[in-house]
Amino acid sequence: MTAPSTPPVPSEKGAEIGRRIGVGLMYGLFRPRVLGAWRVPATGPVIYAVNHSHNVDGPMVMGVAPRPTHFLIKKEAFIGPLDPFLLGIGQLKVDRTTADRTAITQALGVLENGGVLGIFPEGTRGEGDFAALRAGLAYFAVRSGAPIVPVAVLGSSGRPGRLIKALPPLRSRIDVVFGDPFDAGDGSGRRTRKALDEATERIQKQLTAHLENARRLTGR
Hints:
alpha/beta
């Protein structure tokens, strides 16, 4: 019986191409203001925990972040020509209805290779206030030991633009605020359900505090 093959780790070169495309698109369509990017560790594994209130949040972070990013993205977004494009720029397709072992293995592979994993811990678009977190972020952080960098995207969920209804108004200002990296675990290395629940609570407090600080900083 043949053992199942390990899914390939997404290409960092592809993610860098995606970052360059994001730079052109985001700075061409909007007026991003990036604060705290210097806080992102220059090397080693990192997890971006991004609030999520609009479809533009992922591309915006991908374009303004100082390092190429591999985002976990719902499989429903991989439709038509977007499927090979998103895979080609190093993004990860995830089935949110089940424990997607392929996506989990690929995400851990990104971190093991010292890359940057992007996660929307709320699981789907909402108020963007980190009020409800899924346990996936805690699992990846505790399992890999990678620090979490909180990222607040502010200004993307206002009134839609007149020309393109699905996007914020063209040339509108969108703030992206990077916070200080922190460890989710308690130092024990435990991966039990209780340890993950405790890590999720710690993460939520840190992310909520960062969002409040980002709002004060930007006046949003």
